[in-house]
Amino acid sequence: MDFNSPTPAIKMVFTVIFGIAVSWVLIHLLAVFGVFLAFAYPIWWLLLPNKVPNFICFLKYQINPFSQDEREIERNKNLCPQKLSAALANASLILLISLFCAGFVFGESRILFKLGFPPTPKTVSFVIPPKGQYRLGEIFPLKIEIYGIKVPINSVQADLGFNPERLEVVDISTRDSFANIFIQKEINNEAGYARLTGGLPNPGFFSDHGLFGTVYLRGKVPGVAKIEFLPSSLVLANDGRGTNVLKELVSVSYLILPERISEEEEKMQEEMVLKSRVLGKESDKTQIRLYEENKILGANVDREIREKKERKVLDFFLNFLEKVDTFILRQWEMVLSIFRF
């Protein structure tokens, strides 16, 4: 036999995985049906006394198979309970195991809750900005507004993508924002990305809609210029788990006319857009600024989008697992409600 062959190790790994999967299924089945089996066991014993297995004897010799000789073990394994007390003892054992399995399921559900399952419903969307047309070199605003807020939110990450050959971001303003803490404000006009991240402490922001920030853009060449919210954007609920409640992403296209604005207009626009900024920070004293500007943004956004897509399979499995646990716990609630009355 070749002990260097990887076959035994592979078989062992598959055996362990199979054993874990079977154990998981049995635990969840007993958590659902175990309590009914426990109450039905004495009835089955009364109706079919010679057909009901003796679980206590079976477990006894599984735990200590060397306590007697093999013939005695096989004979006792097949014994049926001879008295009502033995049947009740077996029913109690089944009930105890069922309670353990239900506790396991409850603990599993708590872990899933901490991981964000079941997720808070996704109801929030970014407002679709109005389309418009602007002259070449003209600075125009894109308001980052959100609506459909059904639960309080405490954090927003707005990631924007655009063609850097057609557009550039002049500035990102947080004036009149519902948020009062900002941790990221990044612009990368070479790669065509912009990000604004911020929020507010507990109890969060709760309104049907709100303004998060304003991005000031400028067209570089005539034609249609598109800007879109990227999949790495987030709107996190103030639910103790940071659930992303962003439902959908939007995009908008602007028409950049070939007519260029004059130098005086361009200078006046820049002064109006940037007049409230002092040393790179806005002068609004009611808001806290924690960000650093002009960081390189682009590769990080691509990585975040890729990681988000890779999590979809795991999220599907965990969501299915949460539904199974919820179903089991609801059955126990029904059973317990019977004993309350």
Characterise this structure.
Strand 6 and strand 7 form a beta hairpin. The mean pLDDT is 80. Strands 2, 4, 6, 7, 9, 10, 12 and 15 form an eight-stranded mixed β-sheet that branches. A five-stranded mixed β-sheet has the order 5-8-3-1-11. A two-stranded antiparallel sheet has the order 13-14. The chain folds into two domains: 7-114 and 325-340, no CATH class; 124-297, Immunoglobulin-like. Helices cover 42% and strands 26% of the residues. It starts with 6 loop residues before the first helix and ends with a helix. By secondary structure, the chain is of the alpha+beta class. 25% of the residues are buried.
Helix tally?
Answer: 6
Average pLDDT, to the nearest integer?
80
Radius of gyration: 32 Å
Q: Shape from CA axes? A: elongated
In CATH, what is the class of the largest domain?
A: Mainly Beta
Count of the domains: 2
End-to-end Cα distance, whole Å, is: 66 Å
CATH fold description of the largest domain: Immunoglobulin-like
Fraction of residues in helix: 40-55%
Largest sheet: 8 strands, mixed
Number of strands: 15
What's a quick, concise take on this entry?
The protein is α+β, with helices and mostly antiparallel strands and 341 residues long. It is built from six helices and 15 strands. The protein folds into two domains: 7-114 and 325-340, no CATH class; 124-297, Immunoglobulin-like.
